[in-house]
């Protein structure tokens, strides 16, 4: 799960220690196992014990990592959000949106099976209220992280209204793009191109409407 406090800390950079990587790998495998079972049996018919067995861990270990059955899927949802937050923090004030998007596309790595599981999960969020809540929670937690990164870029001690709205626009664009891609199977575009287009749309803001173009006036 994206932790705002951890994201703000300068801390250690580079590759995480082996134990942390193993924990992250275990959490991701639990998430993938949960999606497999949710697709095969349905969310209501899948228990936390089923997920633990599918992932090859004990129920006790599962409960150490996740507070609820539905929250087991969170690791599949936070990868792209964390990736965006990292690049927002390194986005210089003299760079434009094109440079930000180029940075985001340059080093994003995600295996095909993880992406498939994530897209299957996003599709499930349309009909499963519990999973939808987890999806929205992931983005709710991301928004203040985005705002703080943008405030730092603007040289502000904390996010002002402009930065807060910009962070909300980026967050909404990412969510809408992934949901759109998942619901349309993405053809003929890649998910990266859909996300890029959505962020361009957000950056453009609202179109200007002249008085002569308004209808019903």
TrEMBL record:
The keyword DNA-binding applies. Residues 1-10 have a biased composition (Polar residues). Keywords: DNA-binding, Transcription, Transcription regulation. Residues 1-25 are annotated as: Disordered. Residues 24-84 form the HTH tetR-type domain. Gene3D superfamilies: Tetracycline Repressor, domain 2 (1.10.357.10). It holds the Pfam family TetR_N. SUPFAM superfamilies: Homeodomain-like. The keyword Nuclease does not apply. Residues 47-66 bind DNA. PROSITE patterns: HTH_TETR_2. It comes from the Bacteria. Coiled coil: none annotated. GO terms for molecular function: DNA-binding transcription factor activity; transcription cis-regulatory region binding. This is Transcriptional regulator, TetR family. It comes from Kibdelosporangium aridum. The lineage of its organism: Bacteria, Bacillati, Actinomycetota, Actinomycetes, Pseudonocardiales.
């Amino acid at each position: 799960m994206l932790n705002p406090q951890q994201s703000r800390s300068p801390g250690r950079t580079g590759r995480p220690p082996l134990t942390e990587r193993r924990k992250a790998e275990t959490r991701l495998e639990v998430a993938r196992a949960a999606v497999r079972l949710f697709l095969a049996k349905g969310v209501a018919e899948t228990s936390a014990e089923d997920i633990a067995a599918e992932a090859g861990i004990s129920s006790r270990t599962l409960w150490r990592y996740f507070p609820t059955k539905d929250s087991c899927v969170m690791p599949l949802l936070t990868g792209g959000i964390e990736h965006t937050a990292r690049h927002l923090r390194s986005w210089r004030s003299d760079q434009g949106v094109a440079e930000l998007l180029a940075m985001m596309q340059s080093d994003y790595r995600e295996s095909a099976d993880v992406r498939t599981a994530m897209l299957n999960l996003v599709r499930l969020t349309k009909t499963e209220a519990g999973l939808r809540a987890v999806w929205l929670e992931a983005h709710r937690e991301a928004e203040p992280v985005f705002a703080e990164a943008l405030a730092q870029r603007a040289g502000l001690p904390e996010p002002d209204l402009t930065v807060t709205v910009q962070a909300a626009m980026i967050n909404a664009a990412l969510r809408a793009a992934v949901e759109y891609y998942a619901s349309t199977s993405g053809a003929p575009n890649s998910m990266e191109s859909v996300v890029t287009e959505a962020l361009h749309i957000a950056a453009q803001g609202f179109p200007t409407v002249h008085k002569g173009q308004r209808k019903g006036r």
